[in-house]
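Journal club prep, shared notes

We agreed each person brings one worked example of a sequence with its structure written out as tokens. Mine is Aryl-alcohol dehydrogenase-like predicted oxidoreductase. I'm keeping it raw so we can talk through how to read the token line rather than staring at a rendered picture. Sequence first:
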Amino acid sequence: MEFRYLGNSGLKISEIIYGNWLTHGSQVENDTATECVHAALDAGITTFDTADAYANTVAEQVLGDALKNQRRASLEIFTKVYWPTGPKGHNDVGLSRKHILESIDGSLQRLGTDYVDLYQAHRYDHETPLEETMQAFADVVRSGKALYIGVSEWTADQLRAGHALAKELNVQLISNQPQYSMLWRVIEKQVVPTSGELGISQIVWSPVAQGVLTGKYRPGQQAPEGSRAADTKGGADAIRGFLRDEVLTAVQGLQPIADELGITMAQLAVAWVLQNQNVSGAIVGASRPEQVRSNAAAAGIRLSGDIMGRIDEAVGDVAQTDPALTASPARRPA
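Then the structure, token by token:
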């Protein structure tokens, strides 16, 4: 495993991050989830990402149980706040001071820790003044319940405004967590340059495009049994946008490149996002321990300029690049 600094801070994280969206508390049984976490630890992964909204708080509990008895100082644990949780009442959502301060306490209890290394705004809240949100995050840091703050899926302008307020409050906003893959490049034109200027790193999710970049989905064929596209608990909804025949055909063109390098298509996809210097880590999920071990093997792989060019040629114009696709809900979800 290799490690990278997160933003303009002294915190190092594993460049492969284990995340439990759509898996813990939902797609896989708790015993299997624990096996996956232990496989991640065995592979040298020290950074774990979750959120209070995943499986309506259950994912945090499962991760906390799986990490029990590990040396806390050797781990970097990240979680997030914004989406509705618990009974999903009118204040159980968003980035109000009330919701942030109540949510961090719930997250720490479920994770079984006194603090998280990174506390993230899971989306931008258009219904709460940004000053209120950033002051609440600053208070979370000053109370010792989080060491750093980050955000997820914020636009370049939102990052700039949040960073300015964090600086005024003397806390460190060091990361953004966007979707990023060969097929989803919407951060490249605005978010990445702005982040580089501000000292913010990307922690990217879905580097394998919900499994599409593994090559297991074929144009004109039914999704394999047991795959995310066949999952009725949320997985199928998350992947649907990538399952167009023109996308799946382009992805098959990546197989010869992976074969030439002697790696899997998933490893190629994870290695690709890590070539971006503004990316500190790639979040990978798994429903089986062997998937964790395979994904972790992408750490340290460096792709030549020629290989990067061939990947661009294979993907062609099926990749999404419009910066406007980085967006948060205009109103808080119910």
